[in-house]
Amino acid sequence: MLLPLLRITFGILVVGLTAYAASLFIEREQTGVALLVSAVTLGAGALVLITDLREKQKKITTISAIYFGLLLGLLVGWLISIATAPLLEFAFPNERRMVQIGQVFITVISCYIAISTLLQTKDEFRFIIPYVEFSKQVKGGRPLVLDTSVIIDGRIADICDTRLIDTKLIVPRFVLQELQAIADSSDRLKRNRGRRGLDILKRLQTNPKIELEMHDGNVPELRTGERIRVDERLVILAKALNARVVTNDFNLNKIAQLQGVDVINLNELANALKTVALPGETMTVRVVKPGDQIGQGVGYLDDGTMVVVEQGRPYIGQETTIVVTSVLQTPAGRMIFGRPDQRLSGTTTPYPGGGSSGSSTSNTRSGDSTASHVSLGNKGGEAASGGTGSGTPASLGHKPGDSRTGEPPRSPDESR
Prior knowledge:
By secondary structure, the chain is an alpha/beta fold. The chain is built from 14 helices and 12 strands. It has 3 domains: about 1-135, no CATH class; about 145-270, 3-Layer(aba) Sandwich (Rossmann fold), CATH 3.40.50.1010; about 280-345, CATH 2.40.50.110. It has helices at about 1-25, 30-55, 60-90, 95-120, 150-155, 155-160, 175-185, 190-205, 230-240, 250-260, 265-270, 340-345, 380-385, 410-415; strands spanning about 125-130, 130-135, 145, 170, 210-215, 245, 265, 280-290, 295-300, 305-310, 320-330, 335-340. Helix 1 (about 1-25) packs antiparallel against helix 2 (about 30-55), helix 3 (about 60-90) runs antiparallel to helix 4 (about 95-120) and helix 7 packs across helix 8. Keywords: Hydrolase, Magnesium, Membrane, Nuclease, Transferase, Transmembrane, Transmembrane helix.
């Protein structure tokens, strides 16, 4: 309710000032000038109202910059008006109103210059007293400055959807320009990467869970006109804003750490969030290809962790349960080593025919009346020899009472 009332009050004041200014020229019978002044004044007021209606989301830093700029402009304008008053009185000896108009004009110019300067430098505002400097301190979480690589990667948008990040994200203008240059590249791969980065920025901008800021300010080191690499600009800007850099670039990570800037590497964050496996635990993995060593198989977990399976080559194309034997942490990620869980399978190595090394194979079918092998040293031979224990083999013989011969068992006398 207060905002519409403020706009109505502003409109009434603009109309009143316009009428007063026009009346001054009408008294002198300068109707044309009065109409011109009225049009300019009303147009300026309408432009201010339209700009206010278009900019619905305003920042407190902008209001502070306008406030301090207005105070500074009034002070400087008043001092300049006092200094130039003798010159204006000499130029218009009998025109007191013209002197006042000149002083107001000087004050307006001073206010404009002060407000414009503070609006352009509000992010790096410093209030300096000799030997003392007051700098802006950010309360709460420190802002995050996004690198080009992390924007193209796209995982930062997924992280923001989880509400893990509640601090302000800053995208410098030169990073946006680099993305536009990549999107306009003649190389198809680079062009697709640049367009993906712009799509990710649009997704971040429309995400109501985070605050995204396009930073247009320049730090003092960037105003020299020298051509500085984007990586160096990011580090300098992060130091000036007391922010942290989010990147996937290994070199930028090292450069920022050497200069005392905190860095969040998404690759390291992803490795920290991967599955933790301890030796002796079991897990299910699908073996997709052979390993470097003989008999090894290689599979991957859902998070991309590589799993090396000893004696896992026969399991290629299958899901198997393994027992973790060791875990290796490398800069590129985590590797898990394991072997098939024999407690669940009951075998050591599967074979394509469906058998296993732990089970015997018989070539004799049930109900077959013909023996398929020669039994050497069986107990039937010992019985046929009269139980002397000589161990003489019975060639092509059968056990006593074998149902396959259809003969009853013979006594030792009959065997003699």
